[in-house]
Amino acid sequence: ANSFRFSTQPAPSRPANPLTWETPKGWKVASSGSGMITVAFEVGGKAGQARATIMALGGNGGGMLPNLNRWRNQVDLPPLKDLFQQSSSSFQIDGQEATLFDLAGNRGEPSSRSRILVCILAREKRTWFFKMMGPYLTIENNKNAFEELLSSVRFSENND
Fold it and tell me: Residue 81 and residue 26: Cα distance in Å, rounded?
């Protein structure tokens, strides 16, 4: 006769979230832990909804220039041949230096333009992307909240 043994061990759980953050006032968590996206937020505004996300990709996340050109395309800006053609600023996330890009389309009236704020943080094993995209004026009105989100991020020990 066959004997079956059942494990009394609990099923393996998903690894603990490697970072914490404070959701800015007025933002709503739209989804959490789906696919590559750690969390997505709905960002309201009179000019229309924007979306903010936190996600990580392995290694260098596909490279800075290809990502930058993809985002530039999303706001109707031409691609760049060199990363140094795009202005950026430094931003501290949990004591580490990250790169912040502010990409705004320049066609039409400001009310019809798209804009992306994206902050990239390269850690040991993964590259983290903090991105907010939507109507120009919604992004403008939520830029401080986005920076507050970035400032609130904390990574857990030994987990990038």
Answer: 38
116 closest CA partner among 96, 99, 138: 138
**Cα 153 to the center of its chain, rounded Å:** 11
What's the pLDDT tens digit per position in 20-46?
Answer: 999 999 999 998 777 788 899 999 988
Q: pLDDT band at residue 58, thresholds of 50, 70 and 90?
A: confident
Instruction: Return the DSSP state at 158.
Output: T
Q: Six-digit token pair at 150? A: 């970035």
- The answer for residues whose C-beta is within 8 angstroms of residue 89's C-beta and 6 or more apart is 99, 100, 102
Return the number of other C-beta atoms located less than 10 Å from residue 78's C-beta: 7
Query: Which has the closest alpha carbon to 61: 124, 143, 16, 19?
Result: 124
Q: Does an H or E element contain 74, and which?
A: helix 64-74
